[in-house]
Amino acid sequence: MDSLSSSSSSSSSSSSLKFNHQWIYDVFISFKGDDTRESFVSHLYAALSKAGINTFVDNELIIKGTELGSELLEAIEKSRISIVVFSKNYAESI
């Protein structure tokens, strides 16, 4: 019994260390650019920004099958949460 409780307390302290990093963004918005960028996503970004929520939106067009750039991966890692905007063509971008 004692080994189980000490094991669980050590794993919880190590997991809290893992999540103790500084966020740069509150929100990362994931979307397929050509079908939502100029409509829903731009309105969502404006509303979040107006509310004081620091939001990352990628302004580059990502071509299907190409690797995500290091800046984009870093933005994902340094965002507190992600909002995925599902659209008709979103699955094609993955």
Automatic annotation (TrEMBL):
Domain TIR: 23-94
Highest taxon, organism lineage: Eukaryota
InterPro entries reported for this sequence: TIR_dom, Toll_tir_struct_dom_sf
Keyword NAD: yes
Signal peptide limits: none
Keyword annotations of the record: NAD
GO BP terms: signal transduction
PROSITE patterns, sorted: TIR
PANTHER family hit by this protein: NEUTRAL_ALKALINE INVERTASE, TMV RESISTANCE PROTEIN N-LIKE
Protein name listed in UniProt: Resistance protein
Upper classification of the organism: Eukaryota, Viridiplantae, Streptophyta, Embryophyta, Tracheophyta
